[in-house]
Structures are given as structure tokens and as C-alpha cells.
Write a structure and sequence with these properties.
This protein is an alpha/beta fold. It is built from 5 helices and 8 strands.
């Protein structure tokens, strides 16, 4: 979806990458991976990775469209990617991580800094880690966007947690 509709341009993606952010795959066509053939699954996963790598270099991670995954999808994804993220909310526990089924936390326009703090506290107290997923940072966005002020308050909560962070 790069360079289409309201999605980011190649130049914007390169700028994010240059700023230290990891770029990952979300498949070639955003298909529900549990509902396609084995050949289509390989095309969605490997094709997307090859296309992105031609533009941006090494791509290590995948986010399952709709969070849809099963044992077949996970097995194929972990042949192609180092990690794959689900839409399962929660903490990833050190020593028990399934690299093909990483958990995350969706951040929406109703997520406040106290919630982010509670997620950081849960990760710290369990000895695990969590992934925060933001779909957009903009004024007047939809349910999956936060304002720049919300994002700043969330990042202050993350920083105040004392946990190590990575993009």
C-alpha cells in the first residue's frame, strides 16, 4: 500500500527507516492468510518481503493482516521472517517467546497515558516486554489514530517506565 491512497510514500518510509525505525511486512495484498492456498500464502509472505527488500533492504518482521494466523501460517511465516506479530493483546514473556506469535497492545484514540503506564508496569513486573502498535499520529484521525499530544504523553509514560525501548 506504499504510495497509494492515504498511505505513506516510499520517501516517507525511507525517512522513517533513516531515523532508526524498522520497516516490516504486512503481506502483498492484506489477505486473510488462514483462508488462502499454500501457493497464495507463499506469494503473500515471500513476495511482499522480496518487494520491500528491493526498496529498503532487509525486512525481518511481519504483522499478520487482521491478526489472522494458524499453525500453518505461523510455520510458513517463521521460515521467511524472524518474527511475526499477532493482534493478541498482552506481554511477551522472556524465555517463552514464540517468535511467530508475538503479542501486542493496540493504541487507539481513547488510550490514555495511564493505560500505557499500566502496560509498562505489567511488562516490568512479569519480566516480559510488549509491543505498542500505533496506526497513525495526526489531528482529527480515526479510532486507530492518536493526536500528537496523546503520542507525546504516551512516550513520556514509556520513558518514565525505565524499560528499554526499541522501534
Amino acid at each position: 500500500a506504499i504510495n497509494s491512497g492515504s498511505y505513506m510514500s516510499t520517501a516517507q518510509a525511507r525517512a522513517m527507516q533513516s531515523a532508526g525505525h524498522e520497516l516490516g511486512s504486512h503481506t502483498a495484498t492484506h489477505a486473510n492468510l488462514t483462508q488462502i492456498s499454500a501457493d497464495q500464502l507463499n506469494t503473500e509472505l515471500a513476495g511482499s518481503k522480496a518487494s520491500l527488500e528491493a526498496q529498503f533492504g532487509t525486512i525481518r518482521s511481519l504483522a499478520y493482516p487482521y491478526g489472522a494466523h494458524d499453525s500453518t501460517v505461523v510455520a510458513e511465516a517463521t521460515k521467511i521472517y524472524q518474527t511475526a506479530r499477532t493482534t493478541n493483546g498482552g506481554v511477551n514473556m522472556r524465555g517463552a517467546i514464540n517468535r511467530g506469535q508475538l503479542s501486542m497492545r493496540y493504541v487507539t484514540n481513547t488510550t490514555d497515558a495511564a493505560t500505557v503506564t499500566s502496560w509498562m508496569n505489567e511488562a516490568a513486573s512479569s519480566g516480559g516486554w510488549t509491543i505498542l502498535v500505533y496506526h497513525g499520529v495526526e489531528e482529527g484521525g480515526g479510532v486507530y489514530s492518536v493526536t500528537p499530544a496523546q503520542f507525546a504523553s504516551h512516550m513520556a509514560a514509556v520513558k518514565n517506565s525505565g524499560l528499554r525501548t526499541a522501534t
